[in-house]
Amino acid sequence: MLRSLLFSLLAVAASLSAAEDGFVSIFNGQDFNGWKGPVENYEVKDGAIACKAGKGGTIYTAEEYADFVVRLEILIPAGSNNGLAIRYPGSGDTAYVGMCELQVLDNDAPKYAKLDARQYHGSAYGMVAAKRGHLKPAGEWNVQEVTVKGSTIQVVLNGVTILDTDLSQVNLEEVMGKKPHPGKDRTSGHFGFAGHNDLVLFRNIRIKRL
Question: 19-53 burial, b if ≥16 CB within 10 A, otherwise e?
Fold first, then answer.
C-alpha cells in the first residue's frame, strides 16, 4: 500500500517536472533584476510583482522573445485593470506598438459593464474578444498560460481556452475605434506588464522559448 502510494507520488512529481521542462523563471520574487521600464511604479509584495495603486506604465523583461509560452498567476482586486505586454518594443503603448496587449481586468466590476467586448480579460485589446466567465472572483489567484507562435495567440485561463486567434487575420478597419496597430505584425519583442494605475499582482512567472 505504502509502496504503491510512493510510486503514485513519484509519477505525479515526474509528470509535473516534465510539464515544466524548458520553462525559466523571469522574476526572482525579490527585486526587479532583469526588468526594465518604470520599475519604481511597481513593488514586490509577498513574492509577487505588484503595480502600485495610482501608478502604472509598462515594465518589461530585458530579454526579447519571438515565439514563446508564458505561465503565471494573476490576482485582480475588485475593479482593477492591467495588461500583458506581448512583443513590446520597449516604449509606447503596447496595445498598439507591441504585437498586442492582452487585457487583465476584473470583468465583473460595475464600472466595466459597458465596455467593448474586446476590452475584457484575456482579449487582444481592441482587436479580438476573449470568452468570459472563467475568471475567479476578484481577489483570488488565477492561473494563466499564453502561447505566442508566429501571428497566433492562445490564452488558457484556469484550464479553459478563452482566446485562440491569428492576428494576421484581423481587419484593421474593424478594430475598436479603427485605431492603427503598427506593432500587430511584430515577430519579437519584450514581455511585460502594462499597469493602469490599479493594484494587480503577478507571481510564479515562467517563460519558455519555442
Answer: eeeebeebbeeeebeebebeeebbbbeeebbbbee
Antiparallel, parallel or unpaired: β 189-196 and 42-45: unpaired
pLDDT at 149: 98
User: Among candidates 57, 42, 40, which has minimal Cα distance to 205?
Assistant: 42
In this prediction the pTM is 0.90
* Per-residue pLDDT tens over the stretch 48-85: 999 998 999 999 999 999 999 999 999 999 999 999 99
The yes-or-no verdict on residue 13 having pLDDT over 50 is no
First-residue to last-residue Cα distance in the chain? 41
> Which residue segments constitute the domains of the chain, with CATH numbers given?
24-209 (2.60.120.560)
Give the Cα separation of 175 and 167 in Å (integer).
11
Angstrom distance (rounded) from CA 188 to CA 17? 28
Element containing residue 7 per DSSP (H, E): helix 2-19
